[in-house]
Specification:
Elements: H1 5-16, H2 26-35, E1 37-41, E2 46-48, E3 56-62, E4 65-70, E5 76-82, E6 87-88, H3 90-95, E7 102-105, E8 109-115, H4 116-125, H5 127-153, H6 156-167, E9 169-170, E10 177-179, H7 185-192, H8 196-208, E11 213-215, E12 218-222
Length: 225
Protein backbone atom coordinates (compact mmCIF):
# COMPACT_ATOMS: atom_id res chain seq x y z
CA UNK A 1 0.00 0.00 0.00
CA UNK A 2 1.13 3.55 -0.70
CA UNK A 3 1.57 5.02 2.78
CA UNK A 4 2.32 8.60 1.86
CA UNK A 5 0.22 11.75 1.52
CA UNK A 6 -3.58 11.67 1.64
CA UNK A 7 -3.81 7.87 1.42
CA UNK A 8 -1.74 7.46 4.58
CA UNK A 9 -3.78 10.11 6.44
CA UNK A 10 -7.02 8.59 5.19
CA UNK A 11 -6.05 5.15 6.52
CA UNK A 12 -4.91 6.57 9.86
CA UNK A 13 -8.18 8.47 10.25
CA UNK A 14 -10.08 5.24 9.59
CA UNK A 15 -8.00 3.33 12.14
CA UNK A 16 -8.59 5.97 14.81
CA UNK A 17 -12.34 5.48 14.37
CA UNK A 18 -12.19 1.70 14.87
CA UNK A 19 -12.84 0.64 18.50
CA UNK A 20 -10.08 -2.00 18.39
CA UNK A 21 -7.40 0.65 17.77
CA UNK A 22 -8.64 3.55 19.91
CA UNK A 23 -6.19 2.84 22.73
CA UNK A 24 -3.20 2.12 20.47
CA UNK A 25 -0.57 4.88 20.61
CA UNK A 26 0.02 7.01 17.53
CA UNK A 27 3.44 5.56 16.68
CA UNK A 28 2.09 1.99 16.79
CA UNK A 29 -0.92 3.05 14.74
CA UNK A 30 1.36 4.52 12.08
CA UNK A 31 3.39 1.31 12.02
CA UNK A 32 0.21 -0.71 11.64
CA UNK A 33 -0.94 1.47 8.74
CA UNK A 34 2.21 0.64 6.77
CA UNK A 35 1.34 -3.07 6.80
CA UNK A 36 -2.35 -2.85 5.91
CA UNK A 37 -3.55 -3.77 2.43
CA UNK A 38 -6.80 -2.19 1.25
CA UNK A 39 -9.09 -4.63 -0.52
CA UNK A 40 -12.45 -3.92 -2.12
CA UNK A 41 -15.15 -6.58 -2.40
CA UNK A 42 -18.47 -6.51 -4.27
CA UNK A 43 -21.75 -7.48 -2.62
CA UNK A 44 -22.10 -11.20 -1.78
CA UNK A 45 -18.35 -11.87 -2.05
CA UNK A 46 -16.77 -14.57 0.13
CA UNK A 47 -13.86 -13.00 2.02
CA UNK A 48 -12.87 -16.04 4.08
CA UNK A 49 -14.17 -19.57 3.71
CA UNK A 50 -14.83 -22.09 6.47
CA UNK A 51 -12.31 -24.94 6.59
CA UNK A 52 -9.58 -23.21 4.57
CA UNK A 53 -6.23 -22.00 5.97
CA UNK A 54 -6.12 -18.39 7.13
CA UNK A 55 -3.32 -16.07 6.02
CA UNK A 56 -4.95 -12.69 6.71
CA UNK A 57 -7.16 -10.97 9.24
CA UNK A 58 -9.49 -8.18 8.13
CA UNK A 59 -10.91 -4.95 9.49
CA UNK A 60 -14.10 -3.61 7.89
CA UNK A 61 -13.41 -0.03 6.89
CA UNK A 62 -16.65 0.42 4.92
CA UNK A 63 -19.59 -1.92 4.42
CA UNK A 64 -21.21 -4.83 6.22
CA UNK A 65 -20.73 -8.59 6.28
CA UNK A 66 -22.23 -11.76 7.72
CA UNK A 67 -20.55 -14.66 9.49
CA UNK A 68 -21.87 -18.07 8.39
CA UNK A 69 -21.29 -21.75 9.04
CA UNK A 70 -22.41 -24.74 7.02
CA UNK A 71 -24.99 -26.87 8.82
CA UNK A 72 -24.96 -30.68 8.71
CA UNK A 73 -27.47 -30.65 5.85
CA UNK A 74 -25.43 -28.14 3.86
CA UNK A 75 -27.49 -25.03 4.61
CA UNK A 76 -25.87 -21.68 5.30
CA UNK A 77 -26.35 -20.83 8.98
CA UNK A 78 -25.88 -17.15 9.88
CA UNK A 79 -23.93 -16.71 13.10
CA UNK A 80 -23.52 -12.94 13.25
CA UNK A 81 -23.49 -9.66 11.35
CA UNK A 82 -20.44 -7.39 11.18
CA UNK A 83 -20.46 -3.62 10.78
CA UNK A 84 -17.78 -1.09 9.84
CA UNK A 85 -15.08 -1.18 12.54
CA UNK A 86 -15.43 -4.91 13.22
CA UNK A 87 -12.54 -7.28 12.58
CA UNK A 88 -12.43 -10.99 11.80
CA UNK A 89 -10.07 -13.76 10.79
CA UNK A 90 -7.74 -13.24 13.74
CA UNK A 91 -8.43 -16.60 15.41
CA UNK A 92 -7.04 -18.57 12.47
CA UNK A 93 -3.88 -16.46 12.62
CA UNK A 94 -3.39 -16.80 16.37
CA UNK A 95 -3.96 -20.54 16.43
CA UNK A 96 -2.52 -21.36 13.01
CA UNK A 97 -5.76 -23.20 12.26
CA UNK A 98 -8.29 -23.32 9.43
CA UNK A 99 -11.15 -20.85 9.29
CA UNK A 100 -13.92 -21.73 11.74
CA UNK A 101 -16.56 -19.87 9.71
CA UNK A 102 -17.10 -18.07 6.42
CA UNK A 103 -17.53 -14.30 6.07
CA UNK A 104 -19.46 -12.82 3.14
CA UNK A 105 -20.15 -9.21 2.27
CA UNK A 106 -23.71 -7.87 2.43
CA UNK A 107 -22.86 -4.83 0.30
CA UNK A 108 -19.87 -3.35 -1.50
CA UNK A 109 -17.18 -3.24 1.17
CA UNK A 110 -13.69 -1.88 1.77
CA UNK A 111 -11.55 -4.07 4.03
CA UNK A 112 -8.09 -3.59 5.50
CA UNK A 113 -6.10 -6.82 5.41
CA UNK A 114 -3.18 -7.72 7.67
CA UNK A 115 -1.00 -10.78 7.04
CA UNK A 116 -0.29 -13.41 9.68
CA UNK A 117 3.42 -12.52 9.86
CA UNK A 118 2.74 -8.79 10.27
CA UNK A 119 -0.08 -9.42 12.77
CA UNK A 120 2.12 -11.55 15.04
CA UNK A 121 5.08 -9.14 14.72
CA UNK A 122 2.89 -6.16 15.64
CA UNK A 123 1.43 -7.97 18.66
CA UNK A 124 4.97 -8.59 19.90
CA UNK A 125 6.03 -4.98 19.33
CA UNK A 126 2.93 -3.17 20.61
CA UNK A 127 1.63 -3.89 24.15
CA UNK A 128 -1.30 -1.53 23.44
CA UNK A 129 -2.36 -3.51 20.39
CA UNK A 130 -1.89 -6.86 22.16
CA UNK A 131 -4.04 -5.64 25.07
CA UNK A 132 -6.71 -4.33 22.70
CA UNK A 133 -6.91 -7.72 20.94
CA UNK A 134 -7.10 -9.56 24.29
CA UNK A 135 -9.92 -7.27 25.45
CA UNK A 136 -11.85 -7.81 22.22
CA UNK A 137 -11.46 -11.60 22.51
CA UNK A 138 -12.71 -11.36 26.11
CA UNK A 139 -15.73 -9.40 24.87
CA UNK A 140 -16.46 -12.12 22.33
CA UNK A 141 -16.24 -14.76 25.04
CA UNK A 142 -18.71 -12.80 27.19
CA UNK A 143 -21.09 -12.53 24.23
CA UNK A 144 -20.81 -16.28 23.64
CA UNK A 145 -21.54 -16.96 27.32
CA UNK A 146 -24.51 -14.59 27.20
CA UNK A 147 -25.89 -16.37 24.15
CA UNK A 148 -25.48 -19.72 25.91
CA UNK A 149 -27.26 -18.31 28.97
CA UNK A 150 -30.14 -17.02 26.88
CA UNK A 151 -30.59 -20.45 25.28
CA UNK A 152 -30.89 -21.96 28.75
CA UNK A 153 -33.03 -19.38 30.55
CA UNK A 154 -34.88 -17.20 28.03
CA UNK A 155 -37.99 -18.07 26.06
CA UNK A 156 -37.99 -17.99 22.26
CA UNK A 157 -39.91 -14.70 22.07
CA UNK A 158 -37.39 -12.97 24.34
CA UNK A 159 -34.44 -14.45 22.43
CA UNK A 160 -35.95 -13.31 19.14
CA UNK A 161 -36.53 -9.81 20.47
CA UNK A 162 -32.95 -9.64 21.79
CA UNK A 163 -31.62 -10.76 18.41
CA UNK A 164 -33.53 -8.05 16.56
CA UNK A 165 -32.31 -5.42 19.02
CA UNK A 166 -28.71 -6.58 18.54
CA UNK A 167 -28.62 -6.64 14.73
CA UNK A 168 -31.03 -3.83 13.78
CA UNK A 169 -29.57 -0.50 12.70
CA UNK A 170 -31.13 2.95 12.12
CA UNK A 171 -33.05 3.10 8.84
CA UNK A 172 -31.36 5.20 6.16
CA UNK A 173 -34.59 6.98 5.22
CA UNK A 174 -38.11 7.56 6.47
CA UNK A 175 -39.18 7.95 10.09
CA UNK A 176 -36.82 7.15 12.97
CA UNK A 177 -36.74 3.39 13.45
CA UNK A 178 -34.43 0.40 13.54
CA UNK A 179 -34.28 -2.10 10.68
CA UNK A 180 -32.69 -5.54 10.35
CA UNK A 181 -30.95 -6.99 7.28
CA UNK A 182 -33.16 -9.24 5.11
CA UNK A 183 -33.82 -12.47 7.04
CA UNK A 184 -35.81 -15.64 6.57
CA UNK A 185 -37.57 -17.36 9.47
CA UNK A 186 -35.11 -20.26 9.14
CA UNK A 187 -32.13 -17.93 9.48
CA UNK A 188 -33.66 -16.35 12.57
CA UNK A 189 -34.36 -19.81 14.00
CA UNK A 190 -30.72 -20.80 13.48
CA UNK A 191 -29.50 -17.71 15.34
CA UNK A 192 -31.82 -18.11 18.34
CA UNK A 193 -31.51 -21.90 18.54
CA UNK A 194 -34.99 -23.19 17.83
CA UNK A 195 -37.24 -24.43 15.01
CA UNK A 196 -38.58 -22.31 12.17
CA UNK A 197 -42.16 -22.97 13.27
CA UNK A 198 -41.46 -21.75 16.82
CA UNK A 199 -39.81 -18.59 15.50
CA UNK A 200 -42.80 -17.94 13.24
CA UNK A 201 -45.08 -17.98 16.29
CA UNK A 202 -42.72 -15.72 18.25
CA UNK A 203 -42.57 -13.18 15.41
CA UNK A 204 -46.35 -13.22 15.13
CA UNK A 205 -46.63 -12.44 18.85
CA UNK A 206 -44.12 -9.58 18.59
CA UNK A 207 -46.09 -8.11 15.68
CA UNK A 208 -49.43 -8.43 17.48
CA UNK A 209 -48.00 -6.62 20.51
CA UNK A 210 -46.94 -3.71 18.27
CA UNK A 211 -43.27 -4.18 19.12
CA UNK A 212 -42.30 -5.37 15.62
CA UNK A 213 -43.20 -4.49 12.03
CA UNK A 214 -42.09 -6.07 8.77
CA UNK A 215 -41.16 -4.66 5.36
CA UNK A 216 -40.43 -7.43 2.89
CA UNK A 217 -37.74 -9.60 4.47
CA UNK A 218 -36.61 -6.83 6.81
CA UNK A 219 -37.95 -6.44 10.34
CA UNK A 220 -38.59 -2.99 11.78
CA UNK A 221 -38.52 -1.87 15.39
CA UNK A 222 -40.53 1.38 15.64
CA UNK A 223 -38.97 4.28 17.50
CA UNK A 224 -42.03 4.53 19.78
CA UNK A 225 -42.09 0.87 20.77
Amino acid sequence: MNTTGSIRKDVLDSLRGIPLFRRVCESDLEELATHLIERRFPKNATVVEEGLPGDYMYVIREGRAKVTKASDDGREKIMNFLEAGAFFGDMALLGNETRSASVKTLEESVLLALSRRDFIDLLRQSPDLALAVIEELANRLRETNEQARSLSFQGVEERTRNLFERIARPAESGPARLMTPPLTHQQIADMVGTSRETVTRAIKQLKESGWLLQEGKRYVIPADR
